[in-house]
Amino acid sequence: MKLPAIVLILSGFVVVGCQSTPPSAPPVTQSLIRAGVREKADGPTLAEGRKVFVSRCIVCHALPDIGLYNAARLPGIVGWMSGRAHLNPEQKEALTKYLLTVRSQ
Amino acid sequence: MLRKALALVLSLFLAIPAFAGARRFTYVYEVTTSPPGDVEIENWVTWKTRRPNDHGFNQVEFRHELEFGITEKFQAAVYLVDWNYHRGVSAGERGFTLSGSALELIYNFTNPVDDPIGFSVYQEFQGGYRRFESESKLLAQKNFGKFVTAYNATLEAEWEGEGLSERQGEFQQSLGLSYEISPHLLLGAEFVHEIAFPDWAEAEPGKFFAGPNFSIRHRESWVTLTALAQITRAGDEPDFQLRSVFGFSF
């Protein structure tokens, strides 16, 4: 009785977990790296920014749809929340550049 | 004197900037860990009332936890003290009981957004007067945008009494569902299923609890509350329990 219930629940996680990458956090592709040039962001910086986005931000809230935000406000929002997320200056900068690059797409 | 001390503690809590590691659930653990450098105080209050065989039963449990983010994937916590106030025929004489203190460790393996499933392992050791307890958990979680689902499988071993000669085991499963209506309000539900093994022998009939929960985050503070009703009719378990957890980080 116990084992089938556990297997059923974990199977449910696997099935629903096989979705593609979340639309709110697009992967760092060549296209995104090209777009990142405008924000002076290279591939490793965008990758670091995305890593921070999907690991630190979810501790407090769901990942937002960046397209809904005004680009000019994004650095301020990141700055406001970076204290809560204990981001160091490099992480804060990488996250801001990643979000601005995604927003510009 | 007591009032002054209480006012001091409350004013201290109110003055501390908070929010990191806000919990969506109170019975279910999430796989995410606190960021490195984060220090957080969490206060738990659980009210249990009315057992099928003791309608006058009431117990209020308190836990005060200090949580530390050690690395990106590892956090440690100390339960400074677990204590409760109880009343009712089945609880013995009315009064306070000190359960003990504990050390809790959580290591995260995979991310609930990026990986098919987020996984973490949890280990807790609790010690008290003539009492030792070990609790191991496998934590699973998946985030779908604003919807989060988390599952815990727990194996608990407890030794107590003189020479720690009395022993008991328990297997517990818990499932939590939560939806973020806004960054300030989350609604959901939690389900808990327990099977006890007295003296590590034959299993007792399973006990099942379910109920709604909500979490409020406002400016620098958060509180999460769950109300659970017993679906089964186990005489030694409360028909109703309410748990709130509120935390402050600095």
Short note summarizing the structure:
The complex is a heterodimer of chains A (105) and B (250). Chain A is mainly α and 105 residues long.
Describe this structure in words.
The complex is a heterodimer of chains A (105) and B (250). Chain A is mostly helical and 105 residues long. Helices cover 58% and strands 0% of the residues of chain A. Chain A contains five helices and no strands. Chain A has helices spanning 2-17, 30-36, 43-55, 74-82, 89-104. In chain A, α2 crosses α5 (89-104). Chain A starts with a helix and ends with a helix. With 250 residues, chain B is mainly beta. Helices cover 6% and strands 64% of the residues of chain B. Chain B has one helix and twelve strands; from the N terminus they run αββββββββββββ. A twelve-stranded antiparallel β-barrel of chain B has the order 1-2-3-4-5-6-7-8-9-10-11-12. Mean pLDDT of chain B is 88; it is low at 1-18. The interface between A and B is medium-sized, with 30 and 40 residues.
Low-confidence stretches of chain A are: none
Looking at the structure, what is the overall shape of chain B?
globular
Radius of gyration of chain B (CA) equals 18 Å
Helix content of chain A: 55-70%
The fraction of residues in strands of chain B falls at over 45%
